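Section 3.1: Structural characterization of target chains.
Under the original work plan, the team committed to producing a structural model for every single-chain target entering the pipeline before any wet-lab resources were allocated. The record below documents one such target. The sequence was received from the expression subgroup and is listed exactly as submitted; it comprises 259 residues.
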Amino acid sequence: MQHLPKKLDFEGAHNFRDMGGYPLPEGGVVREGLLYRSDHLGRLTDADQELLGELGIRTVVDLRREEEIEEAADRVDNPDVEQIWLPVKAEGADVISIRRGMERGEVNSEQASEFLKEANRLFTGVFAPVFQDFLHLLLDESRYPLVFHCSAGKDRAGFAAAMTLYALGASDEVVMHDYLATNHCTANYLDGMIDGLEDSPELQVDPEAVRTLMQVVPEYLGQAVDIIHGERGGIHNFLESDLNFGADKRAALSRLLAD
């Protein structure tokens, strides 16, 4: 599993990866070439449009807030690709606005960490209906191949990916491996961002605060997982009771996405 996930070579997206290949119970694996997760698609190039076509993407699911889309709307040139908006309006997961707060000297590393922890806690509560809608989208075979994303592709997309993997029966280890993969998928991009801060001395940005914001650690997703296990009766009960995704729907999803 150390070689997973498979990152795609997009010029304008830095965290676009195939969720296929992850091990599932009884020797199964997640099918490749059907489900992808990413950061936003607002900077895709002409070459990236060709790659989207080669992947056969039929559906793009955008989990961002309206303000984020206004700033960097997805560039998907093919009119046949269905674009679905499922906003998770958690300010703590909006890395763009938090980064601007950092640039004004208003947000430090500790505060950024708390924003992300709180966002993950909210995913299990007030925003659970959005993730319920997302999982139900995945039951429609005609939507595949499908890519879902938020802004950086790590918090809202990370929770959506975790719930998908859990629904397929993946272990805690597999779910966390996929979650933490953001760090190595975006390492070069983040290093370039940090280096660029040296060219903007007018910005009052602590590089470590930027790293805190743009990376993931187990404690972020762990906030949600702890609530699910401690207050919601475990993952299967959470899927069934909070996301209306019981055993029959999990089995249907497995027929679509598991080999």
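The longest strand covers residues 35-38.
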